Backbone:
């Protein structure tokens, strides 16, 4: 089992590299992700400190604006004028709008100096925090992982890695994916040419959204993208074919996929093997499948042959 898990981690790394990302694949190794957990703790500490300073600022602002003054109840300009004719009243008003408000201004400026956004931006610049490309790269690796190992997509959205080919292997996780997560992965799959997987992921997003309250993504947005994914899949199938180096489809229009048999029969002894067949054989070997039947193996013989000069 550990061998399978090591291959899974390795595939996540290779998948991001193969996506053409030269400087954005920092967050594909477990060791780097462990460092990121430490950085996250630093960020959380800074944010919590900022929240405490904001609370102090909020309390001071509320005290200032809620501090009721005698002239607040005066309704006419003449009454206010009469009130301010008293020199002590005038003193208090000026004091309030200088020293009192000045203290608020100083506290606001002090809070700005500790704005955590500055540090967060610097951390991102130094690659201590991941970029958006890292997120999309890892999403793409999940799609490749699912595709290569024929992972159970429903279980994958629950956070579990499970495959029944060729042996039932499962690695439970602690965190599930929500509807928006599935939607984001579907978008990445579509951009990377996994048109069949894109349809499957957005379907999972739609199923999850019906169970969420409140939903993490609007139903209308999902419906619109679902139609786009189907149209794009069928267009590629119609114009480019079932599969290629940079794309793959169901081999039939999305609406007809249920009618297609998923049984795969390997043709190993053809004189020429198509590129898509080589790719499929590679995926099957990764999953631990046998490409030859026991009968084929029983007919194999070894012999020594010396070619003629």
Residues:
């Amino acid at each position: 089992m550990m061998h399978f898990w090591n291959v899974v981690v390795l595939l996540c790394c290779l998948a991001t590299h193969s996506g053409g990302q030269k400087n954005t694949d920092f967050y594909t190794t477990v060791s780097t992700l462990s460092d990121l957990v430490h950085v996250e703790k630093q960020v959380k500490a800074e944010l919590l400190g900022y929240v405490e300073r904001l609370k102090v600022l909020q309390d001071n602002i509320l005290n200032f604006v809620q501090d009721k003054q005698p002239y607040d109840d005066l309704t006419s300009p003449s009454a206010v004028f009469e009130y301010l004719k008293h020199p002590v009243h005038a003193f208090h008003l000026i004091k309030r709008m200088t020293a009192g408000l000045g203290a608020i201004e100083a506290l606001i400026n002090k809070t700005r100096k500790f704005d955590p956004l500055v540090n967060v931006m610097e951390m991102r610049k130094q690659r201590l925090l991941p970029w958006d490309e890292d997120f999309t790269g890892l999403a793409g690796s999940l799609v490749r992982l699912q595709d290569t190992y024929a992972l159970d997509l429903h279980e994958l959205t629950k956070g579990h890695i499970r495959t029944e080919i060729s042996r039932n292997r499962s690695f439970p996780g602690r965190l599930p994916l929500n509807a928006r997560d599935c939607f984001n992965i579907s978008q990445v799959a579509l951009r990377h040419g996994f048109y069949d997987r894109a349809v499957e992921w957005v379907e999972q997003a739609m199923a999850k959204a019906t169970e969420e309250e409140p939903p993490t993504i609007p139903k209308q947005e999902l419906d619109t993208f679902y139609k786009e994914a189907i149209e794009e899949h069928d267009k590629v199938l119609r114009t480019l074919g079932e599969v290629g180096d940079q794309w793959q489809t169901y081999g039939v229009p999305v609406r007809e996929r249920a009618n297609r048999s998923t049984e795969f029969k390997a043709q190993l002894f053809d004189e020429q093997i198509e590129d898509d067949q080589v790719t499929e054989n590679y995926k099957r070997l990764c999953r631990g499948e046998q490409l030859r039947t026991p009968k084929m193996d029983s007919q194999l013989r070894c012999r020594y042959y010396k070619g003629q000069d």
Q: What stands out?
A: The radius of gyration is 31 Å. The chain is about 60% helix and 5% strand.
